[in-house]
Specification:
Elements (H helix, E strand, L loop, with lengths): L2 H9 L3 H15 L5 H14 L5 H11 L11 H7 L14 H13 L3 H17 L7 H20 L18 H11 L4 H22 L11 E5 L5 H14 L8 E4 L1 H4 L7 H12 L3 E5 L10 H16 L5 E6 L1 H10 L1 H4 L4 E5 L4 H14 L8 H10 L9 H19 L7 H5 L9
Parallel strand pairs: 1-4, 1-5, 2-3, 3-4
Helix pairs in contact: 1-2, 2-7, 3-4, 3-7, 7-8, 8-10, 9-11, 13-14, 17-18, 17-19
């Protein structure tokens, strides 16, 4: 319906229309006319946050009006009065008929049409979100939910949702794609993964705005990771640093881990120098401060000096270092409530939930398999062990799964040592008999 004009307008220039051109052209090479879906995707994404800004609507009209009589000669104000975008967002809630057709075709011949559609759709949504002066959490959530909906459809059809788009070698994914795969490969942590993907989308949109000469509001990227021990906070922080490097926010993206002892000196006036030394080591990367609330102990003036120094340097170096505070939820929330200056410099508080018993068994199984053991016979016993384990503050979550494996490895060695000529299977298989006594 809009094919000829989309291509004509896109050819005339502009990052948004270039994104449309790439979408249509890439699918056209695969024998797919995606112009109708492009139109609906644009309508849906503009409708998501309900803002319907003039910037969004002007470019929508410019792109689609020549081949759509309902848009001819209209103004943004008139489109708003007509409620032209009312409920357009529902297009994002389920795979379109075209996407389902592409999934079926790919299932039959191993193609990558659906992967190409998905990649270009996300590019287009990010481009639209960059058009106006404010990127809302609603837009970021919509992009992530759309991505999840489409990948679920692919997975249900038995297709790999992480295939590279057609034309890009599937064994040469770019660094960012590889890092997202590492994140998704982590067991559990679904709310955390969603939050990290949204942070990635936000940075991508800010990059698009900067490239177009649009205003990029000053942003703080410092975070607080709250959760019980062993819930993956350090692992996610390490991946996040690399994601920030891939997106151009940080030059190195390395992770430096510290605690109170690394930041607080024994004499008044020396703490600021220690903080500067730590900040220098983390420059252009991520500084993770474990149990940050440990810096403040009652009337401890040394810890208070460290907090004051950190707050200042969080602002001074916000473009060169990302600081992540980690620790127990209650204590961390108390620290942030008690120090408004610190709280105002934390962009997001990301909550890391405890692992379920099933997830702990999955972690146990992965550790054992990667260590060359066969955990299969022991999985039911491991589940019962986790179900009976006390779940207090000191429960180690993922560390508990690793500790269980190491304890079972010792018991397994003692058991198999009694066998005169053990088979390969006996040397590798863990069983319920190997549970720690």
């Amino acid at each position: 319906m809009f094919r000829s004009k989309i291509m004509q307008v896109a050819t005339s220039g502009g990052a948004f229309t270039t994104t449309i051109q790439q979408f249509v052209t890439d699918l056209d090479r695969l024998g797919v006319d995606a112009t109708s879906d492009v139109y609906e995707l644009c309508r849906a994404t503009i409708d998501v946050d309900g803002m319907l800004t003039d910037d969004e609507l002007h470019i929508f009209i410019e792109t689609f009006a020549p081949d759509n009589a309902t848009l001819s000669g209209v103004t943004p104000a008139e489109l708003r009065r007509r409620r032209f975008f009312h409920r357009a967002r529902t297009f994002l809630h389920q795979p379109s008929d075209l996407f389902r057709q592409l999934v079926e075709s790919d299932r039959l011949d191993g193609g990558r049409r659906a992967a190409t559609y998905l990649a270009r759709s996300v590019d287009l949504m990010q481009s639209i979100a960059s058009l106006d002066s404010h990127v809302s959490h609603v837009e970021l959530a919509a992009i992530d939910n759309f991505r999840t909906c489409m990948t679920t459809c692919l997975t249900q059809a038995g297709l790999d949702p992480n295939l590279a788009p057609e034309g890009q070698a599937s064994d040469r994914r770019d660094e960012l794609t590889d890092l997202v795969l590492q994140l998704d490969a982590l067991i559990g942590l679904e709310p955390v993964k969603q939050r990290v993907r949204q942070l990635g989308d936000l940075l991508t949109i800010m990059t698009l705005r900067r490239e177009r000469g649009l205003t990029v509001p000053p942003m703080t990227h410092h975070l607080a990771f709250v959760g019980n021990p062993g819930t993956g906070k350090t692992t996610v922080a390490r991946i996040l640093g690399k994601i920030y490097r891939a997106l151009g926010l940080l030059e190195k993206g390395h992770l430096v881990e510290v605690d109170r002892a690394d930041l607080v000196a024994g004499y008044v006036g020396q703490t600021a120098a220690k903080v500067d030394e730590v900040m220098a080591s983390a420059m252009d990367g991520v500084l993770l401060i474990d149990e940050a609330y440990g810096l403040v102990r009652g009337t401890d003036e040394y810890g208070a000096e460290a907090i004051d120094a950190l707050v200042k340097r969080m602002e001074d170096h916000r473009d060169r270092v990302v600081i992540i505070l980690t620790g127990y939820p209650e204590e961390m929330n108390g620290l942030l409530r008690s120090n408004p200056g610190l709280r105002s410099r934390i962009a997001k508080v990301v909550e890391f939930p405890d692992y379920s018993n099933i997830e702990l068994v999955e972690i146990f199984e992965r550790i054992a398999t990667e260590s060359g053991y066969g955990p299969g016979p022991a999985l039911d016993s491991a589940l019962r062990w986790f179900e009976g384990a006390p779940r207090g503050r000191e429960f180690g979550n993922g560390r508990a799964a690793r500790q269980l494996f190491e304890d079972m490895m010792v018991e397994h060695a003692s058991r198999v040592a009694q066998i005169e000529h053990p088979s390969d299977r006996q040397l590798t298989d863990l069983t319920g008999e190997d549970l720690p006594r």
